[in-house]
Structure formats: C-alpha cells, structure tokens
C-alpha cells in the first residue's frame, strides 16, 4: 500500500493553470499533488556569445525553491552567495530537456529563459518544472508566431517528465516525498510527446534493481508522460 493510497500506476492529481503572471511572455502554475511550481518564459532578442551569428536560438532555464516550500524553512541561496550543486544540476537538466523539443534554427537568433520557482515541494519538483516549463515555453512561442516574428513553429514536440521508483519492493509511478525518501530505486524519465526519450536518471538508493524492473519502470513512465502530455495540450489549447 502506498502512503497516499494510490494504485501502483496512479498519478497524483495534475492541474496546469496558464497566464498566472502579468509580464512574462508565457506562464503557468503546475500542481502535481502537493508539489506546486510557478513556471515563466521570458523572451530576449539576444543569444549567448557562443552561438552569436549562427542564426540559431537558445532555450535555457533557472530553478529555485522558495524558503518555505518544504517542511522547515531553508536559507535563500542568495544569502550564501552562490547556488548549491543540486540547483545547478536541476536547472541544467531543465534547459537541455526543453531544448530537445526545439528546432533552434526555426526559433531564430533569440533566447527564451524558463524560470521554475518551487512554491511547495512534495517530491518530483524537477519533473514538474520540466512539464510546466514546456507549457510556459509553448505560450511564449505562440506570441512570437502570432506577431509574425517566427514563421515555422520551432517546437517540434511536447516535453514532459515523471518520476518512478521501487517502493516497498514494487515499481510505482509518480513518487511523492514519503515514497521518494524511502525508495530502494529512484528514477526520473524525460520524454517527448512523440515518445522519443530525452533523458533517464536512475539510481539504486538502497537496493539494486534488475533489467526487468528497469523495463517496468520505463513502462510506467511512458504511461505517466502520456497523461502529462494530454494535460499540457489541454492547457495550451
């Protein structure tokens, strides 16, 4: 029995509310159970120096957790004078995941920065950030296309992510914090809407896993991502 009472292959409740901020070109608030993330996409008519003059665009991301997004207050990273290793790793993951669904030539020489701010955390914040980040990115690109600044849609597919793991000896979908903290195996699966894999992160957190178990987790991930892609499409329709 899962702590939440969910079936092994059951997602947490997912909702995506769009247009939640006034100034960003694209924004949404994604809720996956008790994990809530504010995602905004900001357009800039410039690119990093390493691709300047190439005609290609760039999509990057930043990630952060609010001080009271968890059960006890955490110190703002700005107070420490630098970002922690976890933050840097997650925002790089979000950026490269979203870029996997972008035709950078079609985007043109401009940059879109996706900011993911965790308001409330209960496991799976990086997955919620990627899933909500794509919605914010989609809305920002829609504005570019409506203005005629982009002719061909640069978004070739949706991008979504879900966690799966071995909890109490059973493969389960969409880990919340009580499961994530005790899972024997933990994995994050990032896929495009067309089913193509972008990245899989799996590790033994307390017990090793078999190839068969990895395959069962992959099956769960495909199911979960298909549900998330449906929610993304409904949100931007």
Automatic annotation (TrEMBL):
Against InterPro entries, the record matches this protein to: ExoRNase_PH_dom1, ExoRNase_PH_dom2, ExoRNase_PH_dom2_sf, PNPase/RNase_PH_dom_sf, Ribosomal_Su5_D2-typ_SF, RNase_PH, RNase_PH_bac-type, RNase_PH_CS
Protein origin, superkingdom: Bacteria
PROSITE patterns, sorted = RIBONUCLEASE_PH
Q: Does the record carry NAD as a key word?
A: no
Name the keywords, alphabetized.
Nucleotidyltransferase, RNA-binding, rRNA processing, Transferase, tRNA processing, tRNA-binding
Q: What class of enzyme is it?
A: transferase
Domain Exoribonuclease phosphorolytic, chain residue ranges per copy = 10-140, 159-224
Please state the Enzyme Commission number of this protein: 2.7.7.56
What is this protein for, i.e. what is its function? Phosphorolytic 3'-5' exoribonuclease that plays an important role in tRNA 3'-end maturation. Removes nucleotide residues following the 3'-CCA terminus of tRNAs; can also add nucleotides to the ends of RNA molecules by using nucleoside diphosphates as substrates, but this may not be physiologically important. Probably plays a role in initiation of 16S rRNA degradation (leading to ribosome degradation) during starvation.
Q: How does it assemble?
A: Homohexameric ring arranged as a trimer of dimers.
Which protein family is it in?
Answer: Belongs to the RNase PH family.
Q: Which PANTHER family match?
A: EXOSOME COMPLEX COMPONENT (PTHR11953), EXOSOME COMPLEX COMPONENT RRP41 (PTHR11953:SF0)
Its recorded name reads Ribonuclease PH
The gene for this chain is rph
């Amino acid at each position: 029995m899962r702590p939440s009472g969910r079936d092994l292959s059951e997602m947490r409740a997912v909702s995506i509310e769009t247009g939640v901020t006034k100034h960003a070109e694209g924004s949404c608030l994604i809720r996956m159970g008790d994990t809530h993330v504010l995602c905004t996409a900001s357009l800039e008519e410039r690119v990093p120096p390493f691709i300047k003059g190439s005609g290609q665009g760039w999509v990057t991301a930043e990630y952060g957790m609010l001080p009271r997004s968890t059960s006890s207050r955490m110190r703002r990273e700005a107070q420490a004078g630098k970002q922690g290793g976890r933050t840097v790793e997650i925002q790089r993951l979000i950026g490269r995941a979203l870029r996997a669904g972008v035709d950078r030539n079609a985007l043109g020489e401009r940059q879109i920065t996706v900011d993911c701010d965790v308001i409330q955390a209960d496991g799976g914040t990086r997955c919620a950030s990627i899933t909500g980040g794509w919605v914010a990115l989609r809305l920002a690109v829609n504005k570019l296309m409506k203005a005629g600044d982009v002719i061909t849609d640069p978004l070739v597919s949706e991008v979504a992510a879900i966690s799966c793991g071995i909890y109490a000896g059973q493969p389960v979908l969409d880990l919340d914090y009580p499961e994530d903290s005790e899972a024997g195996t933990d994995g994050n699966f990032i896929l495009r809407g067309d089913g193509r894999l972008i990245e899989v992160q799996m590790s033994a957190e307390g017990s090793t896993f078999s190839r068969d178990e990895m395959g069962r987790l992959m099956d769960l991930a495909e199911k979960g991502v298909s549900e998330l892609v449906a929610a993304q499409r409904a949100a931007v329709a």
